[in-house]
TrEMBL record, chain A:
Keywords: Transferase. The keyword NADP does not apply. The keyword Cell division does not apply. It comes from Lentzea rhizosphaerae. SMART domains: PKS_KS. This is Beta-ketoacyl-[acyl-carrier-protein] synthase family protein. Belongs to the thiolase-like superfamily. Beta-ketoacyl-ACP synthases family. Residues 2-416 form the Ketosynthase family 3 (KS3) domain.
Automatic annotation (TrEMBL), chain B:
It comes from the Bacteria. This is Ketosynthase chain-length factor. Residues 1-402 form the Ketosynthase family 3 (KS3) domain. SUPFAM superfamilies: Thiolase-like. Belongs to the thiolase-like superfamily. Beta-ketoacyl-ACP synthases family. Keywords: Acyltransferase, Transferase. It comes from Lentzea rhizosphaerae. CDD domains: CLF.
Length: 422, 404
């Protein structure tokens, strides 16, 4: 009997509110949470907007030591991790810790903290020889993002396989795919997975500025991210985290757990094309979709909803629209497609997991969140992008996709599990 | 179960470029830890490292790649070229979607990142390179390898500090089991720039001894921390069926077991290294008595050395198996270290010799391990166990065996 990986707990830190409830409220109401950046003075930059989380680590129960030691992205992971654990109802201390794993996605790790410390140590870039006397004791934890997996593993008491998966903007999908593989192959029974990112610091904003990938609609930040709209002009950065408790199906059933859905298929592809560019034909994303569907033993016509990458660039919109048509054929035109980045911005290595959680909640609520800010559809994007308002629909199979710098293309098929309690 | 064999090895190590030069130097115990030349270390308390000498990226890579790559990406790309060439893989030999690229990372292109941070804060946003968006991030090497070789199969990047080099190979084997024919895998790493150096110093793990022969002494009573190095190994891992499609392909050895575990924060719990090794042996379907050598993690930090010695002793018995740490010649290579150890284990099998651990003079007697010191031991090596640990609690183990 092959092992199956199902989701039994979720936790969220997102723009618009902390916790899964607040997140779903935002998505289901089609509200946006992008705004002018408040974390630092963004006035020197081309794009000055982001989806910021109103995250107060004290209110979220972190200790002063944790707040001092942990990068904001790691703080998100701990808080969302605790919510996911509680939601799963698993008594983690009753499990064999060796059968618990962690797989955490992040694209840029602890960059915000690294930049902060760099400014001090180099005296605002004056010296190439950074002054060692200013190094904080936990600088090395910022240096490598695996420290965040460590933190999450400590939170849940994991002693099985633990790692960070870092594949740029597909990290949040790939980490969950990796986790599912650990469960299916038998390396773990429970894997706490997901993605976290708190990239809102000048260096990351500049990265997207210099390649003109981000929106300059600074006078209207709440509607700036407009996937599939012909007035779109780029992505809007975001921050956030979703942590997911992934569990082997029989393990979950044995304890009568509520099951949100199954990670039934997952595939990633490299496009071998360009570190930041996308080929308009979408062949590799389509390949990933086909393999994920095959692994899920699903037909294209089973897909009831597509959670798009929807980053808000024309290149992306054409790329994924082509991929959906290539894989789903005529069914692509009948399938609702929507993009959450229109509401919460692009939180790089976290967004894939946030999209998974939003898609699972669409199962629960029978409601497909919309693509916000889609007023003037781009005629070249001719699918059903669920503009502005959520739509009621009974969905049993969701396809969620991601594209990332480095040429990564990922696709995951989530399926509702029959007889799943609650 | 799908098998996974190593048919190509690209190595950039402080003591040798390419598997032949590396292996000759390693068997002869040629240490390459020296005073740092890549930046002025006068104002830092740690002043030595293992630097890869004689690597001129411009001789191997097109000029257009240079402005968009960090040193560690250049090492990786050249190492990948060598691995593919050694494996005799020509473009179009294998469908592009049947090739996976799985690399390990620790800190990305850190030197590149420091330069751009400095530009941003000293000169202004308009001076930041358009390549910064990807040149420094952790996923860069997988993406660049894929583009360079036109591979369109699965891609991934694993980060588990210094255990990642082993984990990436484990994940590559997983991709073979899921159906790809060939994977380019492993890690090459470098973070020898001032901004990385202050982080390394802050880790609390570096030796404060700046005598290259006395700084990194794993299992020695004078162990005082480790020394950083750069480099690593990229391997061609493929199914035997895929290798057989290229008649005459050399098979170095086979990856037969892999597992990873994590250390609890609670001191009452046993560290996970022994469990990782046992799980890897079980995965290989092998008994400890079949292992001819252990390539140790060899942290060089007394409590970690003790824990590793206890794990080895617990599995093999006192002095039950030769243990070696060729990384005493190179320093620790971060994401590259685990993969270079796996490559060394495979070369050990291929060339029937165990490379020595250098500089260690006074192994702690209570550890009761048979440390291969000073000179190589020649003789048949059928199977090896490779251990790796990463700061924060990561443990990985891999079993490699001669291919039959």
């Amino acid at each position: 009997m092959s092992r199956r990986a199902v989701i039994t707990g979720v936790g969220v830190v997102a723009p618009g509110g902390i916790g899964t409830k607040a997140y779903w409220k935002l998505l289901s109401e089609g509200r946006t949470a992008t705004r002018i950046i408040t974390h630092f003075d963004a006035s020197p930059y081309r794009s000055r907007m982001a989806g910021e989380a109103d995250f107060d680590p004290v209110r979220e129960g972190l200790t002063p030591q944790e707040i001092r030691r942990l990068d904001r992205a790691a703080q998100f992971a701990v808080v969302a991790g605790r919510e996911a654990l509680a939601d799963s109802g698993i008594e983690f201390d009753q499990l064999d810790p060796g059968r618990i794993g962690v797989s955490l996605g992040t694209a840029v790790g602890c960059t915000t903290s690294l930049e902060r410390e760099f400014i001090v140590g180099s005296d605002r870039g004056k010296y190439w020889e950074v002054d060692q006397s200013y190094a904080v004791p936990h600088l090395y934890d910022y240096f490598t993002p695996s420290s965040m997996a460590t933190e999450l593993a400590w939170t849940v008491g994991a002693e099985g396989p633990v790692s960070v998966v870092s594949t740029g903007c597909t990290s949040g999908l790939d980490s969950v795919g990796y986790a599912a593989e650990l469960i299916m192959e038998g390396s773990a029974d429970v894997v706490v997975t997901g993605g976290t990112e708190a990239p809102l610091s000048p260096i990351t904003v500049v990265c997207f500025d210099v390649i003109r990938a981000s929106s300059t609609r600074n006078d209207d930040p709440t509607t700036a991210c407009r996937p599939f709209d012909k007035t779109r002009d780029g992505l809007v950065l975001g921050e956030g985290c979703a942590i997911i408790v992934l569990e082997e199906l029989e393990h979950a059933r044995a304890r009568g757990a509520h099951i949100y859905g199954e990670v039934a298929g997952f595939a990633s592809r490299c496009n071998a094309y360009h570190m930041t560019g996308l080929h308009p034909e979408g062949i590799e994303m389509s390949d990933a979709i086909n393999i994920a569907l095959k692994q899920a033993r699903s037909d294209a016509t089973d897909v009831g909803y597509i959670n798009a990458h929807g980053s808000g660039t024309k290149q992306n919109d054409l790329h994924e629209t082509a991929a959906f048509k290539r894989s789903l054929g005529a069914h692509a035109y009948k399938t609702p497609v929507s993009g959450f980045k229109s509401m919460i911005g692009h939180s790089l290595g976290a967004i894939g997991s946030l999209e998974i959680v939003g898609s699972l909640l669409a199962f629960e609520e029978g409601l497909i969140p919309p693509t916000a800010n889609l007023h003037e559809p781009d005629p070249e994007c001719d699918l059903d992008y669920v503009p502005l308002v959520a739509r009621e629909a009974k969905v049993n199979t969701v396809l969620t996709v991601g594209s990332g710098f480095g040429g990564f293309q990922s696709a995951m098929v989530l399926k509702k599990v029959e007889g799943a309690g609650r | 179960m799908t098998r996974a064999v190593v048919t190509g090895i690209g190595i950039a190590s402080p003591n040798g470029l390419g598997p032949t030069a590396y292996w000759r130097a390693t068997l002869h115990g040629e240490a390459a830890i020296k005073p740092i030349t890549r930046f002025d270390s006068a104002n830092y308390w740690a002043k030595i490292a293992g630097e890869v000498p004689g690597f001129e990226a411009g001789r191997h890579l097109q000029g257009r790649l240079l402005p968009q790559t960090d040193h560690m990406t250049r090492l990786t790309l050249v190492g990948t070229d060598w691995a593919l060439r050694g494996a005799g893989v020509q473009p179009n030999d294998i469908p592009d979607t049947d090739i996976a690229v799985i690399t390990a990372a620790t800190a990305g292109g850190y030197e590149f990142g420091q330069r751009e941070l400095q530009k941003l804060w000293h000169q202004g946003p308009e001076y930041v390179s358009a390549y910064q968006s990807f040149a420094w991030f952790y996923a860069v090497n997988t993406g660049q390898i894929s583009i360079r070789h036109g591979t369109r199969g699965p891609g991934a990047v694993v980060v588990s500090e210094q255990a990642g080099g082993i984990d990436s190979i484990g994940h590559a084997r997983r991709q073979l089991r899921k159906g790809v024919k060939l994977a380019l895998t492993g890690g090459m790493d470098s973070s020898l720039c001032p901004w990385a150096w202050v982080a390394h110093q802050a880790s609390g793990s570096l030796s404060r001894n700046n005598n290259p022969r006395r700084a990194y002494l794993p299992f020695d009573r004078d162990a005082s921390g480790y020394v950083c190095g750069e480099g690593g190994a990229i391997m061609v891992l493929e199914t035997p069926e895929s290798a057989a499609e290229r008649p005459g392909t050399r098979v170095y050895g086979e990856i037969v077991g892999y597992a990873s575990t994590f250390d609890s924060r609670m001191p009452s719990r046993e560290p996970g290294l022994k469990r990782a090794a046992e799980l890897a042996l079980r995965d290989a379907g092998m008994d400890a008595s079949e292992i001819d050598v252990v390539f140790a993690d060899a942290a060089g930090i007394p409590e970690l050395d003790k824990a590793e010695a206890e794990a080895i002793k617990g599995i093999f018995g006192p002095f039950g198996v030769p243990v070696t740490a060729p990384k005493t010649m190179t320093g620790r290579l971060f994401a590259g270290g685990g993969s270079l150890d796996v490559a060394s284990a495979i070369l050990s099998i291929y060339w029937s010799a165990i490379p020595p651990t250098v500089n260690v003079e006074n192994p702690v007697p209570e550890y009761e391990i048979d440390l291969v010191m000073n000179e190589a031991r020649h003789g048949k090596v059928k199977a090896a166990l490779v251990l790796g640990r990463g700061k924060g609690g990561f443990n990985s183990a891999m079993v490699v065996r001669e291919y039959r």
